[in-house]
Specification:
three-stranded antiparallel beta sheet; alpha+beta; about 150 residues
Length: about 150
């Protein structure tokens, strides 16, 4: 009886101690392939295109502000990208009385993934030393920053 129990225990220990390096290599390769596929799905944003995007956003905001000054209905979408390359959308719509603000962070995988909506009274631009800031005045919600551009003066 002890002999059969000893043999059974020995078989279990030998079975648990064996590893299959071929399977581990295969699993690692599959994981690497999955990671590279996921990384390939993300849009690659070169450093200079980030600046280009911010300048495009500035032009869109300037055009929107001109229409608001004239009292004409206007809409604009500002797209900003996180460090990981995920888009955050900000939509503004002027209806001759107020500015509807909507910020959509649902595509930001690291963020809280929500849509924030506010009714705002005005849009302003402030130029300070080394930066230009665009923001909305939204009554009880205070100021909502839309875009900040920093630059160096020579």
């Amino acid at each position: 009886m002890y002999r059969m129990l000893s043999i059974g225990l020995l078989i279990v220990l030998i079975g648990c101690g064996m590893t299959t390096p071929v399977e581990e290599t295969t699993q690692t390769t599959e994981l690497e392939e999955e990671r590279s596929e996921k990384e390939a799905e993300k849009p690659e944003i070169p450093e200079d295109s980030s600046l280009k995007n911010e300048l495009e956003n500035q032009k869109k905001l300037e055009d929107f502000m001109e229409k608001v000054k004239k009292g004409a209905p206007a809409k604009v979408r500002i797209t900003r990208y996180t460090v990981e390359g995920d888009p955050i959308y900000t939509d503004l719509a002027f209806n001759k009385e107020s500015i509807e603000f909507k910020r959509d962070t649902r595509r930001d995988k690291q963020g809280n993934g929500q849509v924030i909506e506010r009714i705002c009274q005005s849009i302003k631009k402030e130029e300070e030393l080394g930066k230009t800031v665009y923001f909305l005045n939204c009554g009880i919600y205070g100021h909502i920053e839309l875009l900040t551009l920093a630059y160096q003066e020579y």
